[in-house]
Amino acid sequence: MKMRHPIKTVCVYCGSRMGNKPEYAALAGDVGRLIADNGMSLVYGAGSIGLMGVVARAARDGGAPVIGIIPEHLDAVEITQDGLAELHVTKNMHERKLMMFDRSDAFIVLPGGLGTLDETLEIMTWAQLSLHEKPIILLNHENYWSPLLELIDHVVEGGFAAPENARLLHVVESAEEAIDFLARHTTSDASKSQLF
């Protein structure tokens, strides 16, 4: 029997750049603050730059334990955030993504670039393959991720994915909606997987 438990650790995928709208940074700050306010921990990519840094500092300053996970080759480039509860330096990106998965009960996707897109699609693929049941929250602020949602629908309509794959993402528009959903959700111990 699967044991259910409240979501306590949240992995946030987001850009290592700030983007060209100030609302993105405000959104990242709101997510970090609300993670702390709800007694959760943050798991993220360990950088101090871009939206990554904003969400980490907001969570840290709010009293949340912040767990940073970064591969060796990015450690110098992304300037690791100070004040982390834990810092893990991995050998490569694959090890980083697996550790981020293992340390997290759920995922929130903020605006970001190709790396964020890669992480999101990979965690969706693992869910599609029934390797986990952890919730994946897509924060579609001002329709930033609408082209991705349209692409997923296109893939389903083309017959390359089942209709339920389009429902692997829980789409919200605000930080409050994202955290409220997680506060009401539980996850399963069975999601601690040996993926590779």
What would you say this structure looks like, in words?
By secondary structure, the protein is α/β, with parallel strands linked by helices. The chain contains 7 helices and 9 strands, in the order E-E-H-E-H-E-H-E-H-E-H-E-H-E-H-E. The chain has helices at 22-37, 50-61, 72-75, 93-102, 114-128, 146-157, 175-183, and strands at residues 4-6, 9-13, 41-44, 66-71, 86-90, 106-109, 136-139, 169-172, 186-188. The strands form 2 sheets. A 7-stranded parallel β-sheet has the order 5-4-3-2-6-7-8, sandwiched between helices. Strands 1-9 form a two-stranded antiparallel sheet. Strand 7, helix 6 (146-157) and strand 8 form a beta-alpha-beta unit. Helix 1 runs parallel beside helix 7 (175-183). The longest helix is centred in the first third of the chain and has 16 residues, at 22-37. The model has no long low-confidence stretch (mean pLDDT 92).
Keyword list:
196 residues, 40% helix, alpha/beta, two-stranded antiparallel ribbon, 7-stranded parallel β-sheet, 9 strands
What's the gist of this structure?
With 196 residues, this protein is α/β, with parallel strands linked by helices. The chain is 40% helix and 19% strand. The protein has helices at residues 22-37, 50-61, 72-75, 93-102, 114-128, 146-157, 175-183; strands at 4-6, 9-13, 41-44, 66-71, 86-90, 106-109, 136-139, 169-172, 186-188.
